[in-house]
Design brief:
mainly alpha; 62 residues
């Protein structure tokens, strides 16, 4: 499974592109929207867990 948030973001209806520095469009918030989308689509719990696991590698350290 390939995780491509930029394609999902560009193709999501009702979602407008904002300025690059917008807090609302941080990587984490967009990733959370993507995970919620997967849940609404009825994806398997194992798939959602794997996506979250992969996203953990992409988040900046706290």
């Amino acid at each position: 499974m390939m995780l491509n948030l930029s394609c999902w973001l560009a193709s999501t209806p009702g979602r407008s592109l904002r300025k690059a520095g917008s807090v609302k469009d941080s990587f984490r918030s967009i990733a959370d929207e993507y995970v919620n989308k997967l849940k609404k689509e009825g994806r398997a719990d194992r798939t959602i867990a794997k996506v979250k696991w992969l996203l953990d590698f992409a988040y900046p350290p706290n």
